[in-house]
Amino acid sequence: MKKFLFILFAIAPILAFAQQKLTLEECYVLAEKNYPLAKQMALLEEKTNSEIKVLEKEKLPKLDLNAQATYQSDVIEFPLQIPNSTVIPPNKDQYRATLDANQLIYNGGNIAANTRLKTAQLATQQQQVAVNLYTLKSRVNQNYFNVLLFQEREKLLLSKLEELDSRLKEVNTGVKYGAVLPASEQVLKAEQLKLEQQISQINFDRKKALNNLALLLSQNLNSNTTLANPDILVAQEIETQRPELELFDLQETQLETSKEVISKSNFPKLLGFAQAGYGNPGLNMLDNSFQDFYMVGLKLHWNIFDWGKTKEQKQTLDISKEIVSTEKETFLLNNQMRQKEAENDIEKYDKMLLKDTQIIALREKVLEATTSQLQNGTITSSEYITELNNLYEAKIDEQLHKIQLSLAKANYKVIKGGFN
Known about the structure:
Low-confidence stretches: 1-17
Signal peptide: 1-18
Largest sheet: 4 strands, antiparallel
Order of helices and strands: HEHHEEHHHEHEEHH
Strand order of the largest sheet: 2-3-5-6
CATH class: Mainly Alpha
InterPro entries: OMP_efflux (IPR003423), TolC-like (IPR051906)
Subcellular location: Cell outer membrane
Protein name: TolC family protein
Number of strands: 6
Pfam family, one: OEP
Helix content: 55-70%
Shape: rod-shaped
Mean pLDDT: 87
Oligomer: single chain
CATH superfamily: Outer membrane efflux proteins (OEP)
């Protein structure tokens, strides 16, 4: 018993893999998760965090070490002699080393504004990646339903082969007892070989389509993989929820944040500074010796007139916002046209399927009568095969229209944004 359980647990993963089944939604998730572009989400966030850290470092004091040695052709001299005083002019060779510290005290919120801009840029860039990943859904649809079509056609051909095998057994019995001519058996065998050939061809075509889907999903899919036929509900009253719409909004937000950064750039900047040094001469130019010295103070920088540069930059951003607005309008118009086309396809295939149902019902009745005639020997095998082919051609047409209807619904939901 233990040995049996060990074997059962050992082959369980193999059996699970052999019976692998995928749904359309699972394919969407796998495609977006495994597509190389998806890695940019984390990379963009990491890049932005680094850029924000760089901005935050502007708040820290800046330390500079400076040193210089100079020789000059002339120095300051006093033209008059001061009684009881000897003023020695500075040396022509001079030396100085200083440590300078500058601390930002106020910059009008420029760093905070730039931080908000970086955050807005990150949101826009990540949403652009989301838009690019969303387009994968259309590619998944084409590959998924292509595989599904071959899968369903194979089922129909196998069903047809089973039907043909039953008739062949009956004819074999008739030939054995001399009730049916051997030619009838040969006709059915030839049709059987033809069917096996078609099934083999479909298997190769399905394998090729499955490989394309596997590459898109970055998954190992084999011939045992089965795709579920999705039951897709279409709700036309739901508003468009495409990720492009959010991208347009984020682009406008980014442009508004850029205007704020431009405004902040003209605010006054107040800095505190300190300098400690050692040199000859020091701060006292009349003392010809090496001295240490220091200096502390405040510095104010304010660009009070920029020749209209800020105004022009803001006007440029306003024009960019209008461009984004026109792109949004264009997208909505084109998307609405695609929705109408998809709705038309859904309506077309719905009506075609109603006719398919009627055609199949009639063909089944004809085949039922033809089968009885074949069993009674009143018609040839060729006549039976003709009606059998007519029935299964109608069933294949119905299956094709079902797949096309599901594809049209899936495309409609992608166009509408229902698979977000």
